[in-house]
Amino acid sequence: MYILGASRHAKSVIDQLESIHLVEGVFDDNPEIISILGLEVNSPIPDTFSEDLPIHIAIGDNSLRKSISQRLPSGATFINILHNSAIVSKYARLGKGIVMMERTIVKVDTSVGNHVIINTAASIDHDCQISDFVHIAPNACLCGNVEIGEGTLVGAGSVILPGVKVGKWCVIGGGSVVHKDMPDGSKWIGSKNIC
Prior knowledge:
Acetyl-CoA binds at residues 135, 174. With 195 residues, the chain is mainly β. Helices cover 9% and strands 28% of the residues.
């Protein structure tokens, strides 16, 4: 496989792999990064790759992850990287290019979009809908029937109560409790929508 991105998030992604030898190449647009976990980093990220190997975009920034995915050819194959301690319902639907870190839970009839990060010990309950390019941070909890719009960041340790709909490109601060719907582009800190 190819790994795109060589920053701190990429280290966490590579750490999920059964063997570092699964990585054929690592690419990053920053020419100052020359290695990661003993792997050589090539710069810049090319626009085309050999079609016989899958790609994983290991970039933590949601908008940058989307931008990189749009640069690649439509026929690119993206691989999911799921830690072996992740618990995923057989009735969950997963997109492509997802990473699930240690002790994550995805429950029944939940749909997870493309290029989503579900970070350490995050819990997503039944009937949730997670759109593309979302990041669910460590220890976040989505109760049942929650919707998360494209590109949204759900902060560490936050809780989204049942049935809440969160718009696109929102930011939810760490430790927040979201108890009502959020419009696109809004921010939530603590127990309040701040804009």
